[in-house]
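[step 3/7] fold_predict: job queued, chain A
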Amino acid sequence: MKALVLAGGSGTRLRPITHTSAKQLVPVANKPVLFYVLEAIAATGVTEVGMVVGSTQEEIERAVGDGSAFGLEVTYLRQDAPLGLAHAVLISREYLGDDDFVMYLGDNFIVGGIDPVVRRFHADRPAAQIMLTRVTDPRQFGVAELDASGRVVGLEEKPPAPKSDLALVGVYIFTPAVHDAVAALKPSWRGELEITDAIQWLIDAGRRVESTEVSGYWKDTGNVTDMLEVNRLVLEGLEQRLDGKVADDCEIIGRVVVEAGAEVAGSRIVGPVIVGAGAVIRDSYVGPFTSVAENCHIAESEIEYSIMLHRASIHGVRRIEASLIGRDVEVTPAPNTPRAHRLVLGDHSKVQISS
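[step 4/7] structure written:
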């Protein structure tokens, strides 16, 4: 078995962060989401990974390399335009050959990994194995319809009138039979080759498609709200580790990680919190579910339930919460007079101001 990891796409819902960074490399708990994906694949025993990349290929390659850091052998497969998940399978045909493969969307996060569903596939070997989860608004997802025995009988992509609340999670396992399905597809109304249409083709051809309902936690980390929620979830698993320099005048409460090379002084940190190497926190409060990346600076400020990316700084700001702060961002208070906000914002930024 091989793996196909989809790491293309423009990440429009995470702009402006993704104007300068691949969405799969935005970190939760100071580690890129894509790394969690690769670790989950390695845990199944699969070692050969085809990485489908687009305009952010260079950045993805710098981060992942040849895959050896994860115990994998990574081959990069260029997709010149994001023309659908089935199109990614189509352009990967030569690499995949006649092997079974697991396809994993590189911005999806599944607690507990995928080893159980891979084992089930090996035991039953249907033409396709999909993962499902119940959602409140299935109109935003690919939706599966099951018969009384639980077998998949129909699939729709973002239907206006869903037949169930079971949404497809971004992990699929296929036999080589899917290649015939993909080759027969025509673009959908979205102009894409839909993987849901390919699976429906298998069903219509009498091939067996099985499903597994995700019992743990799943998120598509495509927007800020979901990124913060996944960050919260991962930080819940921390154990206290203070490898950096923590001054005696600090108050450290609960599951706090201070990496080697970080410095904390005159501050109160309430976990779960992770502070990356080279970060400096002085005379500040850092509240639960906050990730502070490498070489960040926080001084005379308060922050909670947030993610700070590399080299960001916050100086003299009373309170920040539920925020995603990008690389090299500087956050400072406005002057008292005149009482006006001065902003330099990139395209697609979102700002909420307490006046």
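[step 5/7] annotate
The first helix runs from residue 33 to 43.
Residues 6 and 319 are 37 Å apart (CA to CA).
exit 0
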